[in-house]
What does this fold into?
Amino acid sequence: MSNIHKYPTISFRISDRDRREIEARIKASGMLKKDYFTRSCIYNRICVVGKKETVYRLVECVRQMQEDMHILAKEIYRDGRIKGKCSPVDGRECDDPDELAFDYVAMLNAVIAVLDGAKYLWENTDEKQPHA
It folds into this structure.
């Protein structure tokens, strides 16, 4: 059963300079490459560089997810199952409530991490607010 893997592969292309820098960090960490990438992607702080419009799209995503979760909760409460709901992570249809719940938690965690990295867009601690 070659060519059959338990978990999917993620791949991307980078410049040779970026690859060398990443390889150096992996070597310095003493971790396996797969562990380094996994931990880097999940646990590193995300810094959003851009406009407030980027954050507004995330807020809209959270609003839509909230509406979806209310609908899902009603369906699951009513008949204990869901039908034809799409994952917010990859858009595939999902009939397992536990798997769908995991995808929603994963997406919410990602949105929270991005918003935390983008809070500089609306928080300005250098300027004093005038007292009324």
About this structure: DSSP finds four helices and two strands in the chain. Residues 52-79 form the longest helix (28 residues).
